[in-house]
Predict the structure of dTDP-4-dehydrorhamnose reductase.
Amino acid sequence: MRIAVTGREGQVARALVERGRALGVEVVPLGRPALDLMAPATILPALAAAAPQVIVNAAAYTAVDKAESEPELAHAVNEAGAGAVAAAAARLGVPVVHLSTDYVFDGHIGRPHREEDAPSPVNVYGRSKLAGEAAVAAAAPDHAILRVAWVYSPVGRNFVRTMLTLAENRDVVRVVADQRGTPTSALAIADGIIAVARNLVARPGEVALRGLFHMSASGEATWADLAEAVFAESAMRGGPSARVERIGTADYPTPAARAPDTRLDCSRIAAVHGVALPPWRVSLAGVVARCLAAEEGKWRRA
Ligand SMILES: NC(=O)C1=CN([C@@H]2O[C@H](COP(=O)(O)OP(=O)(O)OC[C@H]3O[C@@H](n4cnc5c(N)ncnc54)[C@H](O)[C@@H]3O)[C@@H](O)[C@H]2O)C=CC1
């Protein structure tokens, strides 16, 4: 199978390249300037040249706080750009797998969210991603939209790497303890995407495989739980660690509002696609180990 993925340098795109290699799937990563979601004319030619059997749209405007002051840009990439990728997939006659987010929810439902629960984003980023889901669905009937959550990986900008960096210079790190969700490794997401892509290619026209799916790791955590788990894994391997001071969202003001509980119920993708991502702590251990190995000498106190 041959997959074209947008957002070449992103966490999920890079994980997809890595996992594709391991799983015998050819993954062609596409990025700017050849494929720019802000430049619609680049999209169809770049995707067509890759001759994919499936297109994965992992490119996005992901700066949640900055989006508050750049709503047009966030919507241009996450709504119009996503729609244009889906339209190109439809033109090429191949399925599109589009990534969305748990941040489409306002987080007040008090249980893991199902696909049929009404979205109600509390910030610009969430609204732009929700609009992107609609744009993809309208442009390409042959789609799977996967809502993922709290993404981290051994590379790129993410919470896990930020915590390790902070612990190099601090004994105590203040972390929000009243937002719940599910930290999910980009590598696990890549495995899920490949499984879904294989199903879409193998069973064209099977309606149940198409549509909206929640796909996070299993289990749940607060950001403070995640930070503590990162430091425990790191300390065990001789890497940096710090004490976590648990604070409230109100003590850590950010430009974009955050939802208190965006846990996702992933039973639909398990039933329909046979995809169940590992518990978050299992994936986290491997990623922390890789972060430390990548920084060998700097972090390892031998
Ligand atoms: N990072 C997270 O915590 C979460 C991410 N998601 C979603 O998962 C998907 C993948 O996210 P990550 O890999 O973490 O994001 P990332 O921020 O690591 O990568 C996004 C990539 O998109 C590229 N990009 C931005 N604007 C572009 C444009 N105009 N044209 C072409 N490429 C452009 C960036 O250069 C970057 O390489 C996105 O759809 C994101 O909204 C969902 C939930 C949480």
Remarks:
- Residues 71-92 form the longest helix (22 residues).
